[in-house]
Design goal:
Elements (H helix, E strand, L loop, with lengths): L1 H19 L8 E12 L7 E3 L1 E10 L5 E9 L1 E4 L15 E18 L2 E22 L4 E23 L3 E16 L2 E14 L2 H5 L2
Antiparallel strand pairs: 1-3, 1-10, 2-5, 3-4, 4-6, 5-6, 6-7, 7-8, 8-9, 9-10
Length: 208
């Protein structure tokens, strides 16, 4: 349900932008899907370790130059090593799994050089990070696990490189993400590195 909400917000943002944008350019609309790792930085590495992550997004061309709108949902995964128990809990969890559901809307600029393209972007957004927590019943010898939802705002800036394959671009992207909120009393910040593909949907868009 939460993933569907983030996806719906990204699609809504893009749909509204399409309605107010009218130009002919070969890179008017790309979808984006990537895989990789988000590497915790600073004190974030005290409680998070990188795991396999996914990213979904869109690139919507603005105007006739290289400017584009970049809504993106970051579904990063981490190994969670709890340092202190949450309020109302006694035990700390080790080697659990934490997942981000973060939506960022950025403004970017792309420069083409033959089949290659280079781009940078910066933006802001927010969402939540689910971290597991455990309750132990010493009488029944049962362990109950649930998730804590940590809401926070984010800012993100990054750069990438693409190679054109005709109807799609292969890409590699790296960014720095800073969270305006704390987990385990420590600020969240990470460096996502993503590799994936961007199908060019411009021809389909022109038929609408």
């Amino acid at each position: 349900m939460k993933l569907k909400l983030l996806t719906a917000l990204a699609l809504l943002c893009t749909t509204l932008s399409i309605k107010v944008t009218a130009q002919n350019r070969p890179d008017k609309l790309y979808s984006m899907s990537g895989i990789g790792f988000a590497f915790p930085m600073g004190k974030t590495s005290d409680y998070f370790k990188p795991k396999f992550s996914t990213t979904l997004g869109l690139n919507l061309g603005l105007g006739d130059g290289g400017l584009f709108l970049y809504p993106k949902a970051s579904l990063h995964a981490f190994t969670f090593n709890q340092i202190t128990p949450d309020e109302g809990y006694t035990y700390v969890l080790q080697k659990g799994r934490a997942t981000t559901y973060l939506l960022n809307v950025a403004l970017g600029y792309r420069k083409f050089v033959n089949k290659w393209a280079f781009y940078g972007f910066a933006g802001a957004g927010g969402g939540f990070i689910l971290t597991p927590q455990v309750m132990v019943n010493s009488t029944t010898l049962q362990v109950t696990q649930d998730n804590k939802s940590n809401g926070l705002g984010i800012t993100e800036a990054g750069a990438g490189i693409e190679y054109n394959l005709g109807g799609a671009n292969l890409f590699v992207e790296a960014s720095y993400m800073y969270g305006f909120g704390k987990i385990q009393s420590r600020t969240f910040n990470t460096v996502p590195v993503t590799i994936g593909i961007k199908p060019n949907l411009s021809k389909l868009l022109r038929k609408l």
